[in-house]
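User: Structure please.
Assistant: Input sequence and predicted structure:
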Amino acid sequence: MKPSHNPKDPDEPETPSNNLWVGNLSSEVTDSDLMSLFENHGALDGIASYTARSFAFVYFRRIEDAKSAKEALQGVVLKGHAIKIDFAKPPGKWTGFTMLPFLLPYYSPFMGGVQIVA
């Protein structure tokens, strides 16, 4: 079987979460920009941005608010870039990899450092 490098499996339904992954961010986007954009859709617990890597995590208090924001803001242009929004995957959930998982260290902002996936 050919390995899949597509992180989204079309047969696997997307699991809603109160945490959103926001991608395709301009390096000029600030946490304040994201706060202003997302707070109109519900109460936020916080934002963790990694603009050097073009993404951020937006943490809502309620799943319903995250769903609303995802639907309303998908593709919105922010500082010249159309943003992409997905529900954040829980730490350790790898999709699309067929390599031996114990060989794949990764950084997870949820776990606070490097974790070896087993």
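The longest helix spans residues 63-73.
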